[in-house]
Amino acid sequence: MKKLSIKYKTSLLIKSKQSLRTHLKSKRLQNRRKLNEIKRKINEQKSTIVKIFAPEHFTLHISEKDSLRAESRNKLLRFISKIKQSLLENKRVHISFKNTNLLAPSGTLLFISEFEKITNEYSNKITIDYPKDDVVEQLFQHIGLLEKMGLPNRKEITAEQVRCWDFAKGNNVDTSEFKNLFSKYSNAISEDVSSGLFDSMSEAVTNSFQHSCGHQAECNCDKNWWMFARQQNNTLEVVIYDRGIGIPESLRRKPELKEWLRAPYERYKKKFDSTMINVAVQSTRSSTKLAHRGKGLRDMLDFVRDGNIGGFFIFSGAGLFLYSAERKNETSQDFIVPISGTLIQWQLSLN
């Protein structure tokens, strides 16, 4: 076998070294490209994540005195609308609750219903963080929102404004949930009042569900409902929200309404959702000549009228009906931006 010369060996070593350098350079280039691709995907993902800050107040009204102010209502509805729009644009959404410090029952139920519907459709595109406010976090934990979003419960429910509220939800007109809640308050309410109140509430809620589908025997409308209830300081407060077409639109579809709408002034009034809610609250045919299906809403209003404490609210579509027991007066208002479905809230003295 021919012996390799030193010069040839040196040449092979040089070529091998060069080949190794070329290979390493190619490998580094491949790794760099992979790294850049990973960075690009990360940056691309970051660019599609929209951070949306929740408003300070989740409410359709701050208090009875300034209940007709639309500022907080508009902020809440814009917040919900921004979440929906971002998801429709195929973006990921991260919701921050660091600014939220007040969860009123009305706005909270509206948000819960919208949030549940959104997360059912876009479960892998929404993340949230823990609220900064301790009471807000406790309430989100109390209603199961944190657990639904994969965040471990980390608080003990100690805040009285959270513990006093009972929360329930369902997807039909079964009143068993109402019975379960009212059994808690039965000791504080006389038997006749408890029975009458439960019957009125059940009828009102049943009517509300029937309104939600526009009186159709079969429909694909959302029949879910959400409810808060509490008994505190000799008062009972109940808030219930259902999704659907709402009271105003439902009444506009009733054939009986055409007779009432013949008058020019009534045709003008029919444009306003608050007018339709007022019609729904009436228990008799009165000037509208409408055969009302039930007296639940009117009976609930009468319960409040019998006392000097509390109030009765109906939010549906863009309309609001409000009765104040302290001021003994009714007020109506129409907002620019409507809500889906109907929210009923009433507070009455148990004395």
Give a brief description:
With 351 residues, the protein is α/β, with parallel strands linked by helices. It contains 13 helices and ten strands.
Give the SSE map:
Elements: H1 6-48, E1 49-53, E2 57-58, H2 71-88, E3 92-96, E4 102-103, H3 105-121, E5 126-128, H4 134-142, H5 145-148, H6 160-163, E6 166-170, H7 176-185, H8 191-212, E7 225-232, E8 235-242, H9 246-252, H10 257-260, H11 264-269, H12 273-281, H13 296-305, E9 310-324, E10 329-349
Task: Walk me through the structure.
The chain has 351 residues and is α/β, with parallel strands linked by helices. It has 2 domains: 45-152, Transcription Regulator spoIIAA; 164-351, 2-Layer Sandwich (Heat Shock Protein 90). 46% of the residues lie in helices and 21% in strands. It is built from 13 helices and 10 strands. The strands form 3 sheets. A 5-stranded antiparallel β-sheet has the order 6-7-8-10-9, sandwiched between helices. It has a 3-stranded parallel β-sheet with strand order 1-3-5. A hairpin with a 4-residue loop joins β9 (310-324) and β10. Mean pLDDT is 79; it is low at 284-294.
Q: What keyword list fits this structure?
A:
single chain; 351 residues; Transcription Regulator spoIIAA; Heat Shock Protein 90; 2 domains; 5-stranded antiparallel sheet; 3-stranded parallel sheet; 13 helices; 21% strand
CATH superfamily grouping of the largest domain: Histidine kinase-like ATPase, C-terminal domain
Largest sheet properties:
5 strands, antiparallel
Shape: elongated
Number of domains: 2
What share of residues is helical?
40-55%
**How do the SSEs run, as a string of H and E?**
HEEHEEHEHHHEHHEEHHHHHEE
Cα-atom radius of gyration: 30 Å
Mean model confidence by pLDDT? 79
